[in-house]
Amino acid sequence: METSAALHPVEGPNSAADWWQGGVFYQVYPRSFADSNRDGIGDLHGVLGRLDYLQQLGVDALWLSPFYPSPQHDTGYDVSDYFGVNPEYGTIEDFVQVVDAAHDRGLRILIDLVPNHSSSEHPLFQAALASGVGSPERDRYFFRYGGDNPPNNWGSQFGGPAWSQVQPLSGKEEDRGWWYLHLFDASQPDLNWDNPDVRHLFDEVLRFWLDLGADGFRVDVAHGLVKKPGLPDDQIGLNRLEIAPEELGRLYDQAPYFDQDDVHNIYRRWRRILDDYGPDRIMIGEVGVQDPNRKALYIRPGEMNQAFSFRVMHIGWDAPRLREALQTANGLELKFGGINTWVLSNHDVVRHATRLCYPRGSIFEGGLGPSDPRPDREMGLRRGLAYTVFLLGVPGSCYLYNGEELGLPEVLEIPDQARTDPTWERTGHRSYGRDGARVPLPWTADPVADWGPNPWLPIPDGWGELSAERQEGDPNSVLNQYRHFLQVRRQYGLGQGEWEVLDVDPDLVVVRAGHYLSVLNLGIGERKLPFTGQVILATEPPRQEDGHYWLAPNSAAWVQL
Ligand code: GLC
């Protein structure tokens, strides 16, 4: 096949090798983003048809969540062929078309790499099942004998044990008492990265997509690939849901299946592959490591370019914690030279236009549903916009999640029988899961016109009112505000440079970068900004008195000093 995209580099301001520093990335969740044929499932032609919209929004790059062939037990994070496109989404040729058309518009394309596990339908796992105990095929995964019990106490990230029995899948008598490891769903067996076949397979996967013109990769569960020899018990067991989030984070840092030193050899190997294609190809890791010094190792020279700064996403509406998280991030940036990577929403968390209106700790991070307190929509939106502006004003890269530019809320009303996230079943219905953040995007006032009569997740009443079409003509719509934020950010070069957190008022979080301030008011009242200067953007017009600005509660502003 012609691989024209490889010969078709990105044009315009994003052509430099360091294009990603301070860049704005837009996460496309393919199943939910845009549907070109109204079968209820998003597709690559849907993405193609919205590239002008994304260019106009003002982002630098797209990150496409997995679009590979997959039985969709975890919406594509269960890959059955790393070299193809899910037929529901299109073809390899469609992917090349998306890359070409994106590059024409100066947009880069990152794709999602899922190396920790494959689908249980992947030919390698099927071959392992067929080949039997002790075979070289089984060594590509984790098959262990445990008798009546799982071989160790590890729990799945989605609830329940991280081991399932082999015999019901293989049908072989010799497999009684044998188990296979899956840190996520039973349909996602963990690959054994000690096996050279696995390392070689992924070398080829990287090259395949780079040859097609991909500009880089977001690496799924980047801290999880290598497991401690002997697979010893962890300190968590099956009680994940009973442990407070911060304590859980600390325990995961010690877990024998996360953040093992050898994982860095994999990223060094991948870096060399990326470098063969040029200095502008990048890797961003989903590095779920709390200890900032350990996390920083992933973005050492010769490894990844970026690792998501998830802490800022998880702390909620809390000034002291936000200040502390920023200070930690900044300290590391100065020490290790990496660039911060801000994110407020993605496909795994409650949308921030809903999440931020709840008091910290009052909602369960595993999703929201009908039994949860109703969110205050107006407050959530106001805080969501303010937090977004604030972070866009702190130097670093920013990742936006599709639909946040429309101010989409989390959908709480998904009927139980329509839920698809495996966490719902695996936690015995204790965790609603992530479907509420994945409802198909409204493009026009009529969801049936966008998605046909059977969208893959039900679309709630009134969704069309939030559509891009409805927001287009309203200068104050969330969509037009986002466009404005990104345009002003670019105009003033706000994503770049050194910065510091200023301690001026307990309710205000203030970051200073060169001649600019980014300020967020997390208090309940108006706060005086103890600086003089010019407000260049604010989510609510600040009041001026005696030469000073007063910021409304739940608002943010950028100030030129
Ligand atoms: C990552 C993905 C998540 C997925 C999991 C297993 O955390 O972001 O959506 O379920 O990995 O692949």
UniProtKB/TrEMBL annotation:
GO BP, one annotated term: oligosaccharide catabolic process
GO MF: alpha-amylase activity
Domain Glycosyl hydrolase family 13 catalytic residues, every copy: 27-438
Keywords: Hydrolase
Pfam families named among the record's database cross-references: Alpha-amylase
Family of the protein in this entry: Belongs to the glycosyl hydrolase 13 family.
Listed name of the protein: Glycoside hydrolase family 13 protein
